[in-house]
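Field: COMPLEX_INPUT
Field: COMPONENT_COUNT = two
Field: RESIDUE_TOTAL = 1424
Field: MODE = joint
Values follow.
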Amino acid sequence: MTTTVRPDQTVTPSAATPPSPGATRTDVGEHIDVEALGKLLDGRWWELRRAARDLSLDPELQKIEGLPVAEHRERVLAQARLLAERGVVHRAYPASVGGQEDPGGNLASFEELAVADPSLQIKGGVQWGLFGSAILHLGNAEHHQRWLPGVLDLSVPGAFAMTEIGHGSDVAAIATTATYDEATEEFVIHTPITAARKEFLGNAALHGVAAVVFAQLITRGVNHGVHAFYVPIREKSGSGLRYLPGVDGSDDGLKGGLNGVDNGRLWFDHVRVPRTNLLNRYGDVAPDGTYSSPIDSPGRRFFTMLGTLVQGRVSLSGSAVSVSKMALAIAITYGSQRRQFTGADETSEVVLLDYQQHQRRLLPLLARTVAANLAHHELLDRFDGVFSGEHDTDDDRQDLETLAAAAKPLTTWLALETLQEAREACGGAGYMAENRLVGLRQDMDVYVTFEGDNNVLLQLVGKRLLTDYGKEMAKIDIAGAARYVAARAADMTLHRTPLRRAAQSVLDSGSRARSAGHLREADTQRELLEDRVEAMVAEIAGALRPARNASPVEAAALFNAHQHELIEAARAHGELLQWEAFTAALPKVRDPRTREVLTTLRDLYGLTMIEKNLAWYLMNGRISAQRAKTVTSYVDRLLVRLRPHAVDLVTAFGYRPEHLRATIATGVEAERQDEARAYFRRRRAAGQEPVNEKILHANQQKSGMAEPDEDD
Amino acid sequence: MTTTVRPDQTVTPSAATPPSPGATRTDVGEHIDVEALGKLLDGRWWELRRAARDLSLDPELQKIEGLPVAEHRERVLAQARLLAERGVVHRAYPASVGGQEDPGGNLASFEELAVADPSLQIKGGVQWGLFGSAILHLGNAEHHQRWLPGVLDLSVPGAFAMTEIGHGSDVAAIATTATYDEATEEFVIHTPITAARKEFLGNAALHGVAAVVFAQLITRGVNHGVHAFYVPIREKSGSGLRYLPGVDGSDDGLKGGLNGVDNGRLWFDHVRVPRTNLLNRYGDVAPDGTYSSPIDSPGRRFFTMLGTLVQGRVSLSGSAVSVSKMALAIAITYGSQRRQFTGADETSEVVLLDYQQHQRRLLPLLARTVAANLAHHELLDRFDGVFSGEHDTDDDRQDLETLAAAAKPLTTWLALETLQEAREACGGAGYMAENRLVGLRQDMDVYVTFEGDNNVLLQLVGKRLLTDYGKEMAKIDIAGAARYVAARAADMTLHRTPLRRAAQSVLDSGSRARSAGHLREADTQRELLEDRVEAMVAEIAGALRPARNASPVEAAALFNAHQHELIEAARAHGELLQWEAFTAALPKVRDPRTREVLTTLRDLYGLTMIEKNLAWYLMNGRISAQRAKTVTSYVDRLLVRLRPHAVDLVTAFGYRPEHLRATIATGVEAERQDEARAYFRRRRAAGQEPVNEKILHANQQKSGMAEPDEDD
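Field: COMPLEX_OUTPUT
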């Protein structure tokens, strides 16, 4: 298993593509530093990441497309056992249970499991990322000693029983109850209604023998809100498993993808567990039924408990970036070899990637993927800071949650968009399972709605932006606007709060973009992107002000009338964070040519984001109609400049053909094209090629023998 | 089998949804005329369409999700045999072979087969729409008598061997050859290179015993271009089939969807067929090898031959509309029942469809789907006119091809977008195969690249727009601008050429939209949409003018630099056609309330198209910044107005739960919600509900017993 990128083995370097009409190729041959760029894109934990990627070189761990559901599930369980045996799943856990206490490295490695099979990633995510993490973060040291060994070696496959049929994203409203019985010192876990059945749980349909069940904790007639309980659900029965008394469930059956994970439902009929099965870090019940918690506020307690599980969102976001990179590596490799329709010279056909439309389809996605990649490093750093304990204040945790809530929607939607555009850009070949794009898309589809629905997450981010805006405005009222702005300008670190310049836009509305300043200057792009977020938030805050004095019904209606805007503001905020991460990474690139190409790619990201929202910039006077017209032509020029480097850029992603396992990314298309061109060249040279009737017509016309052939 | 829409059986009527915060519900209860609207949307051949839809009520014809590929293929073959037995596949064929010569009715009926299983539709499309149609349209009466009976009764399953691995959309460049041998009066069909292997052919992997093979016809040393040949490929061997000598092939295996169709490759090693196996309607070879054709120009001949196969594009477009309707029926039914997060009153949760973002996600797609539905009727009418012989001039055929090339990209992309948004709007439930959305999306995915890649088709439309623009400009030069404009204004029928007002925009640039005129007036919307197409085409034409005097290489580069714009112009043209079809249909609605709701839906379509391209309108001075800001708030108001009618509108689509076969569209969600609310009501009434800790805190605070709970 090697961890070195070998660009020579990966894809045809762009220099091998002969010049063809329609593309400026002046700089072909000036290769970028693929090795250094690859390391930058693989980030702080690049060695772990590459080792995890190379795990997928083992055929035992690879997805077999089209396997029947039952076989796929058993294969993935066996693969998960292999992972446990190889000790690659312990990394985030405490040393006391054999772990390495390396939360960041663990996620970096986990994210790359999607290369082997996204089902394996999610099966592992359920076991070690959700079930195990809940015990780790919500339980006490005794719980760790008692249950984590079985979690880690997979002798106790477990379900994470949070979601209910009736409540997806709204966890606080779940209806399963855990009622404390002082007489027996037990909790009674109960599912009172159909809507309270636990749903979509991995490991529930077949393999789970225990579950962490989230339920409303009721003791002494008071509901203390959602808490987590360790509940055994199955026992051995002959060679198989059967439900324990009071537990029942059903199988979700076939899904749109991820069919290696055995999702199912679970429900409970007055199932009793000992009092000590309450994972009691944030809330405990004494033998006599007295409730206690280190966090007084039930609301804050709830969000603190859920917050410990943020790693799901962080790692799904990282996986989505990895899969986007794979999709682009496949489509850009194929697009640099495939030819279609003859060009100006009539003897050879044009390479797909030389068509402007093909560049328009793929290169902005390449820019977004690199932006998302670099932004993910910052998210992962922040995650590691909190979970390693290095930066673990309440504020750090809240910022991390907001960043994850902003990142995951953008990256998971990006993955779907990239996979689909890649699949279409490869035509019919893209639809064949052997070329991986359709299978990956099927698997990734659910990433946009699980671990927090993307729209719900963006709304969370939007609410945070509004809260921060409110606080900033309050500060201005107290300290005076001028001093405030000066203070903010000095505070441009990466660890500032999500809404950075908050109220400044009220005072200073983007003079640079309206002036003659150049759209390709980083400061112009930053100003435009920042200004939009800030102005949108300020506008929504203003529109919502009457809600303070309104009835709850009116206030809810007013908020609802601005829900779409709020979600768009959150999206804009997430895009700004990606742009900033991209820009912050540029000075790290030493080779000037590589930095230049990467800066062009950053410009493409910035300008396509501005282009997408051009109407907003025009309506709000941030950009003149004259300048706006230049945005698209700038973008077109950037595409031409980036085209010669497209193959190098995806080579730097470090997914070699043996990782991609897509027939069309192996070079077969180039071989076929070469064979075809050699054949026709030979035929022409030997005079074996029949005369084309069109040419015959043209010659006859010249000598007056035929009618003019006007429709050709 | 009934063909009547029974709205009572379909989905919960909107009146049953109780009012909830955030939505204006003043007009709830004023139902639209679902029956009449249903008939309008089912169009001219509504009876055939409904009968075909009801075919899917037979479990034998229904798709079983997750069937292994081999079983699915055999099931679909058996289903196709059932269709043949029931005589529903003959409709388009001549009376001489048992047909009814009803091309429009045939397609209307064929389009609805996607309800049963899109694989069945495509299997049928290969057999009767491509293989059979090629014999019908490219062959002579003797060919019809000899081969069509076997095609129709499916005793001769056939492949349509046009596409090659090396050439997808560029059919003119295929490399398979059919060389005439005078000595034996045979054609020699040959695959000279790997890239010339026929690829992605339905019926090729398993079931096909013959194929219509497209190849370069070479006789007497001259290549006369692509022609079609009837070529037997397999013979019986024991209980199975084996390749005939010289024929070989391979199986494409698993695909992203449509796995009931046995796609594969075919190639030929000097396979000999009699001279009379040339489908010779547009080009023939005499025994002595002399070539003749009723069409002199090889280019026109090629496009005439391919043009006979336009029905594939027309019917795929219609199917895509049907599937979009199914997806919306599922998601809107579920969205009108599903509740998530408590509203202002704290005791009941808000129905998803009352959230603004949910409306934003689904209702514009509903408007686009109805627009596409009504536009499809016009396309189908035009198709019927040409193929019934009623309006069958060269111009009619060219217009039909341009219309189909504009329609198919828009509708097939709409279907994918709608299926995906519907799937996400249904959350995890949308990802379950039992709810159909993921399976339909997998099947429909390939519709955007087969039967003409969507981007290639839009480029074709763009080129036609440029050609028409050139002709119009030439007319102006001759006849004088003023007289021309007057003449065009009078020529506003539905059968005008694709680019209707062509050069008028040069003379008159949209005064209404800039003036105080209302954006909701139909004339304003029309002017804005038309003006954009025309101005874009004029601008591209202007930019391409230097190509006339440029070298071929420079001309190709110049064209390529405007490829993206040209494709966008074609898309805008397609959207305009849909808007016009929607508007033209409004007077046909008799019930005033229904017409009002449908007009609001048309406005939503028009305004969301304008909103999408707002930057263009602003940059080009068609709309002021002030007016542009009102577009989004107009859209928001339309959503609120349409919300109460959303369920009625999808009921009018006529897909009942037994057509949809999606668990979440059967009312189970409403049952679960009702059960849950009744349970909590009962508990509250009986005083069994535990006190919520939050409320306890609030009470303690009031009496000064606890710290303020600031974070709730």
